[in-house]
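re: that complex we talked abt at group meeting.

here r the seqs, copy pasted straight from the sheet so there may be weird spacing, ignore it
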Amino acid sequence: MKPIQVGLLGIGTVGSGTFAVLKRNQEEIRRRAGRGIEITMVADLNVERAREIVGEGTQVVADARAVIANPDIDIVIELIGGYGIAKALVLEAIAAGKHVVTANKALLAVHGTEIFAAAREKGVMVAFEAAVAGGIPIIKALREGLTANQVQWLAGIINGTTNFILSEMRDKGLDFAVVLKEAQRLGYAEADPTFDIEGVDAAHKATLMSALAFGIPVQFDKAHVEGITQLSATDIRYAEQLGYRIKLLGIAKRRDDANEGKGGIELRVHPTLVPSKRLIANVEGAMNAVMVQGDAVGTTLYYGKGAGSEPTASAVIADLVDITRLHTADPDHRVPHLAFQPDELHATPILPIDAVRTAFYLRLRVADQKGVLAAITRILAEADISIDALLQRESAEGENQTDVIILTHDTVEGDMRAAIARMQALPTVLAPIVSLRKEELA
Amino acid sequence: MKPIQVGLLGIGTVGSGTFAVLKRNQEEIRRRAGRGIEITMVADLNVERAREIVGEGTQVVADARAVIANPDIDIVIELIGGYGIAKALVLEAIAAGKHVVTANKALLAVHGTEIFAAAREKGVMVAFEAAVAGGIPIIKALREGLTANQVQWLAGIINGTTNFILSEMRDKGLDFAVVLKEAQRLGYAEADPTFDIEGVDAAHKATLMSALAFGIPVQFDKAHVEGITQLSATDIRYAEQLGYRIKLLGIAKRRDDANEGKGGIELRVHPTLVPSKRLIANVEGAMNAVMVQGDAVGTTLYYGKGAGSEPTASAVIADLVDITRLHTADPDHRVPHLAFQPDELHATPILPIDAVRTAFYLRLRVADQKGVLAAITRILAEADISIDALLQRESAEGENQTDVIILTHDTVEGDMRAAIARMQALPTVLAPIVSLRKEELA
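got the structure back, here u go
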């Protein structure tokens, strides 16, 4: 049988990795797929550089539409990124009857509903293993490996840049801004790191996973997104003393008790205290890991490189093999794009952040005088927020103020915010209260 | 469309879990699979108990062959276990044109070649996610998630009983026999624990994973198998002091340098020193985890419950959903049973244990006198075995003997065995030398 012919749109880091791995392991991949898989055409604005990467025997063009128009191309890989031209090209490839493989989480988290509907209409597959957690086959685990389960929650370190920064902050006791510069110098953070450090990239990925886990449409606009730019070395240190590490987690959680008993989904990205003894707390540097809790399987965890040329290429090629194997299957019986059949998605709402339930870490800078703790704990008690642990430092010599650290039990965020506002108004609370969410992940 | 009808052979722990989860999550599973999946017939010798478990509406019979003969049954789940009747029934189900789902690692590790050939002949699938590492979708990761990669090695904690025992031995400083009794009392070890504690169960699973990873036939008879019965609390303690934990690992490794350059596969199960800082070293109790190293993806790890009623049911049901989705696919383009196309399996040999390359931990009980260390280190130097670390304890008061602990760099096992024999012959070596393999898993 003649090889599956693949057209590649955009040959940057991941594209050149995909080209290289597909070539290096072509024999191994053919032995698995039962058919050769070849990138026969590449489109990139930088034709010269593209030609250098692919060498002879692969057609290089500047115009992506020439790839889509090529009737010999079976699968189009989109590695351009972003919402603009990438969206147009993906839709055009689908319209031309091509299967599509993409690593574009931003595109799918925002425009997934439209794109998957178009693909369904044309009977083609849009595969996106590379969009979440690089080479870790987490999309496959959620979509196929855990189909027996009601997923209860998932929580992931799904942005390598921020995990690298947090690991360095903890290891070296440095503040965010210092470590960010270092990460940029080492290539772990981009020149404009906004999407990473503000949590947007993680939220794109969490959005995709929430859809796969719970059978809901992608709803990036409903995600609560916080990054790590406000995090201080002080809180990382206190957390450590209390047996916790701070990780930027993307979390999606089923809440059957919420929304007046009609249920809801929590979808949120924020720095999170996690018990140090959990495996996920020990995922360091640019590595990724995703925990998935299912009602039958219990806790599972998936770990690996979340970015980089060849790890991401590993996921892109796994999708190519899947399509090569499965495109003969009756389209109605293929694995659905979002794990659930498209007419079986539910409208379970994403809960507003005020309705989220978590435990909290609070740091209050207080005057070192009688009655301070009583006032604080009274406010928490009145808000029905129970305290799990409390740590009061002795004042440093010559100072008459100190830190009070409080860990709470699970509480509704809105109640916590109201209580924080009341505590903040106390004359003995001398600085803005720091609050971080805490998850036991048990 | 009418539901897929499933017949269940053997309704013990995993079978009743499968029945319960399929019922509890039927709506969720139907939304994913696009079709209902129902166990409509159960065969178990204990008809009474089976009827109690399944209630009304499911036919219960004593004769498994009645299930296979039922033309309405699409998929047969084999949960009887063992090589005997289970083998006959699986082959009969295949011959009757049924797809088969099984958790029977022993059967597939030993008779897989025959069973998969029969299935191919009849155009049916034999799915076995539940055979390795319970609910962790590791078969799917190896077979579909990592298809881009040359797998370089895999290493797994794939037997919960032994991991529970090792965790307890380390935590409490107790010896094997004591902890085994405790594990039996708690239900973590069976009344006859031989298959678990002697490493046989782990070797069955490692055999299956080696086939999936490297494109070779299942060859359980070539696996090197050691259990944990000889392990002492002393060595666990010394390992800990040196920054290692001892885990029973199933290891499969590609060795392109071996077999006079023609390549070979290491396939072995044995207690192994692993650096304490690796995630896998921190997998405690009855949990399982598998590391897979691919040339593109780098290191990945998969973690979860490796046994138990519902975790294993999670894997069984994932297979049912896969079959439900994919049975319309052209059989030539389905995912092959052993990840590689059946006519593309290679005859790469499993290496004999003497040709395996690992580092070693040695403990020698020696006379506390001059020249002892010199004699030992000379033997190692002459065998070209280099020392990574050496720890000599002071003699206890009033004793004139002590322990010498040596960590070596990687060496060929045959050379190590010869050197150990020479050291053992030294008059100053007072007790049998303890040797354990050590893997950095980096």
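couple things i noticed - The mean pLDDT of chain B is 96. Residues 184 and 211 of chain B are 32 Å apart (CA to CA).
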